[in-house]
Structure formats: structure tokens, C-alpha cells
Amino acid sequence: MITLGWKHRILAFVNAPEDGVRSSQTLYESLFYLLERAQAQPAESVRDETRRVAHLIVASQLPDGGFDIGYNFRFGRGMEKSHSKEGTTPEVLSLTALALYYQRYEDADVLEALRRGYDWIRSHMVSAAGGYAVPYAPLTSREVHITNATSFALSALACCAEVLGCRAEVEQEIQGMVTFMQGQLQRAEVGGAYWPYFHQTDAVLASEPGADKIDNYHIGQQLYHHCLAHKVFPLEENAAIIRAVLDYLISLQDEDGFIPYTIKSGKVSDAVDTWGFSSTITGFLSAAEICGDERGKVAAGRVADYLWRHAWSGEHFYPIVSHASGQPLDTHFYPRSDAWVLHALAMEQAQLPDGDASRWDDLRRCYEKMAVNDFRGLENHTLTPRKRLFGWAVMLPLALRARLRKR
Questions:
Q1: Which one of 11, 266, 300, 308 has the fewest CB atoms closer than 10 angstroms to its CB?
Q2: Helix (H, G, I), strand (E, B) or coil at 214
Q3: Between 400 and 254, where is the model more confident?
Q4: Domain-by-domain residue ranges, the chain?
Q5: Which residues contact 96 (CB under 8 A, 6 or more apart)?
Q6: How far apart are CA 157 and CA 233, in angstroms?
Q7: Average of per-residue pLDDT values in the chain
Q8: With contact defined as beta carbons under 8 Å apart, do 279 and 344 qualify?
Q9: What is the pTM of this model?
Q10: Which ranges of 124-266 would DSSP assign to H, the alpha helix?
Q11: Burial class (CB within 10 angstroms; exposed 0-12, middle 13-18, buried 19+) of 65
Q12: Which residues contact 266 (CB under 8 A, 6 or more apart)?
């Protein structure tokens, strides 16, 4: 029999992070961070670094106009990218960041990338549930398996249209995407409304064992991007979405600032993945502005305080902490995780009447730790050969047992 200690060692070996990964998310979240920093500290050095990162994003764009996350991963049962480099829809947030960059600095060098990305989104849009959606990984599957991709494409398309002067061209598509996302909302017992992580169709419900999963951190990210789209295309349906989702997330938060990552079959997770948890700040602050609801600012402040108390190592932010113990479950430095945290905490600092100079300095040092390594480093979400082998080893006996039962 394998002891508990050996089980932990085996899992640690199997789940060991991959090194040398540079993710599109690290780049675009770094650009979001730098734009927030430039707003609060408009120094020439910040402008130059912002331009450098924007040009790295442009250089990373694929020939078809999409953006690859930088590694392979599973996004559903048995679902992964079909190609080693492949555009997936959440990575179009690269376009959102580039569009906001252009609005600040008017750097014409990014316009071609915005146009190509704009065309990529529109070329992969599908009709769904009386509106429009964009599949999560359209080069792998045209099915709308995970709906948050449409929220992310919504902000990218809206921001690109604003910069490129194409508002009239996409008004119907923007309206259709909002209609689709409004139709996916489910009323919550605690108040407000949420999106299930998976598209609630018969096919998805049959294929995904955890199809009832609620991913609150992604919902926080979606809220932010619905707010960005609303600033360009102010639709009452989207305003209603923003109010309902804001109410839901606020209702989940406890006095310590904690919001559970996932809820599956009524079970609430304990682990706080700081990249996702931090991004609820951007949703709270943006929704507070649109709705005129001060509760969003209070909620954002609680999340920020939680991160500084429980996740700040003095050099970087721990990627995973236990809410029950308040202790880190993983102490590695993951550039992608820290980029999300930096963006969120910079937004919170930028909106304070008097930002904390020491906090800004901590964020700057953490950013420089990413930048000096060319935004590359460890990543724990990669689908590595050892994870594949372990998954096969676990599933094979189960499959054989199921086959024997049928005899």
C-alpha cells in the first residue's frame, strides 16, 4: 500500500511545473499592469517599457491573427489543443491590452496586429442560443464548450472596433454576444447571477463529469471584460449582466476578503489560486464605476488586503494559498500568475486617492523579476508528458474494470 507521504511525493513529481514557459497571458497582463502604472506614474521609463511589452505581444501573434497561450493544457474532458501553436479565444485579451495601449500612446505599429486579431475573432464567431458566441478553441472544436471565451472576445472585439473605427460594422455582433452571455446566466440563491463554467447543453452535460462547476475567479475576469465592452458599446442588457454578476460575487465574499475559487456539486474549494482570485479586483472596481456601487470598491480592497497578508513573499506572490490555514500550498515563482496579480493590484493602487508608495515599489520589483527573465519561467498548468502518462495509468484500470463489469 502507498502511504500518504508517498502519494504526496508521487503527485508532486507528476505535477512538477514546466520551466522556460512564456505565456501570452504573462505578456498581456504585464501590459495591463504597465498601463495602470503609467496612469499613476507617467514617467518616460514606464512609457518605454510599456512600448517594449506591446511590441513583444505583436511579435507573438500567429500568422492567422490569433494568439497561442504558450503551452498545451486541458480545457475539458479529453480536450486539448490540436496543434503545438494554436490560437485560443481567451488569448485575444492580447488585443484588448494592445487596444488600450494604442488609446494611450497612439503607437501605429500595433494597428496591423489589431486588425488581424479583429478579423480572427469575427471569422470564428458562431450563432448560438439566439445570439453569437466564439468557441474556446475554434481550431480544435467549433462547439461552444466553455462560455467565458465569449466574454473575453467581447472586450477584444469592442476595443478593437473603437480603435479601428469599425463600430458600425460589429454592432450587431456585439449585441448578439451580449444576448448569448445574458442567456447563460443563472440566478444564485445567495443573490445576483453567475455563469456556469461549461455551456449547459445536453452534449456538454453528458461529456463533462463536473459540468455543474462554477468558476468564480473566471467570473470575476469576465465581469471586468464586460465592463470594458460596456464603455465602448453601452447596452442595457450588458449593464444588467454587470449588476447581477457584481451582486453575486459580493454575496460570496466573507469578512476576510475570501471568495472560493470553485463550487462543484455544492462543494466549495479551499485553495486560493492567486492569479484568478486577484483578478476579481478588476471586475469589482470596473463594475463599481459603471453601477455607481461603492460595495465593489470595498470588495476589491478586501481582496487586495488578503493578497498582501497571505500571498506576498517579499519578492513575489505565492501562486496558491490555503484559505483554511492561511499558508502557501505552493511557493514557486510563476510569472503568469504574478502578472495577473500585478495588473489587479496596480489597478487598485491607481484608483486610491493617495497610492501607497511602498506598495508600488513592491509591485515594480516583482515586475522586474519577470522582465529580467524575458517573461519566462515555471508554469504549473502545462500538460506535460508525465501528466499524460500518469493520467493514462490511472484511467486504464478504471476502463478495464468497467469493461469487465459489462461482460
A1: 266
A2: strand
A3: 254
A4: 17-383
A5: 28, 152, 155, 156, 159, 225, 228
A6: 11
A7: 91
A8: yes
A9: 0.92
A10: 148-164, 167-184, 202-207, 216-232, 236-252
A11: buried
A12: none
